[in-house]
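Form 7-S
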Amino acid sequence: YVDIAKTNKEKGEGLSIYSKLPTDKGMLFIFEKPGYYSFWMKNMKFAIDIIYIKDNKITDIYRDIPPPKSENEFLPIIKPKEQSDTVLEINAGLCDKYNFKKGDSVIINY
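Output:
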């Protein structure tokens, strides 16, 4: 199950609105056109995996991205190597658990 980030505010906050995330939950970001959409871990409280998707195929995966250790910590920007039109954020470790890899097909029902 995923929350869909529809507004710019929701896309900006992402999963930072949660203190922890159930294993079967994530957040889906759907964009109008393919692009190089970047993300960061501002205000995050737990580690996540970020999956970039284009045309229902995984184009890039960033695994186990840790939350910031402090409010003043430098936050790296996560940028995909290829364009995407959809991004899925899930709990860290799930990509490895389910053996997700670049090129895998993705079916999104909503």
